[in-house]
């Protein structure tokens, strides 16, 4: 079975532009998580979904960030407008209800100039 | 106080030695604890989980949990250069086994030949 799939793997954009990151969780997994990793703040949870419903978005840094999960096999994280301080690696992870193990995707390295 | 704290290192050990990685947590209600390994430029992968006080062994890895002291550790026996990575300690918030997984800053381990 394929793991968590993320696209793009790398994104370079200019300040003020809209950025959309995409994630396909492992089939059958009920939970989906979006994380951000930086040297300064480490790995931090932004938002998570259960059965496509957002459960906790308290980690979303500000209104410029939004996330959606229109169906069980697809989620997006959007930043509009982007700022240089948004530069980070963004990971998507998923897990099934029956275990507490999260499986991470390869990540998207975002650079905002 | 951070919810999960680790010594950032770097920790350097010679090949064949025992590497000891430590983690403390602040939420006394935490029940599930995890060690993730992250190679440079890669995503975190789960290597150990522990739920009960005491030791849990898996190959060269041993996780130790002391809930009274709010302390989790990971021992790597017969360390190999391929063990060189960042090791992340994590626990679920609020004593749950779902939802928000909180990570420490990670300990960088270098195993030199």
Extract low-pLDDT stretches of chain B.
Answer: none
**Backbone shape of chain B:** globular
Helix-strand category of chain A? mainly beta
Strand content of chain A: over 45%
Low-confidence stretches of chain A: none
Q: Order of SSEs of chain A, N→C?
A: EEEEEEEEEEE
The total beta strand count of chain A reads: 11
SSE class of chain B: mainly beta
User: How much helix is in the residues of chain B?
Assistant: under 10%
What oligomeric arrangement do these chains adopt?
A: heterodimer
Largest sheet of chain A: 7 strands, mixed
**Number of contiguous helices of chain A:** 0
What's the end-to-end separation of chain A, in Å?
37 Å
N-to-C series of helices and strands of chain B: EEEEEEEEEEE
Short structural summary:
The complex is a heterodimer of chains A (113) and B (113). Chain A has strands at residues 5-7, 10-13, 19-24, 31-38, 42-50, 53-56, 65-71, 74-79, 88-95, 103-104, 108-112.
Explained architecture:
The complex is a heterodimer of chains A (113) and B (113). Chain A has strands at residues 5-7, 10-13, 19-24, 31-38, 42-50, 53-56, 65-71, 74-79, 88-95, 103-104, 108-112. Chain A has 113 residues and is mostly beta strands. In chain A, the strands form 2 sheets. In chain A, strands 2, 4, 5, 6, 9, 10 and 11 form a 7-stranded mixed β-sheet that branches. Chain A has a 4-stranded antiparallel β-sheet with strand order 1-3-8-7, with no helix packed on it. In chain A, 0% of the residues lie in helices and 55% in strands. The model of chain A has no long low-confidence stretch (mean pLDDT 95). Chain B is mostly beta strands and 113 residues long. In chain B, 0% of the residues lie in helices and 53% in strands. Chain B contains no helices and 11 strands. In chain B, the strands form 2 sheets. In chain B, strands 2, 4, 5, 9, 10 and 11 form a 6-stranded mixed β-sheet that branches. A 5-stranded antiparallel β-sheet of chain B has the order 1-3-8-7-6, with no helix packed on it. In chain B, β6 and β7 (61-66) form a beta hairpin. Chain B is globular. The interface between A and B is medium-sized, with 21 and 20 residues.
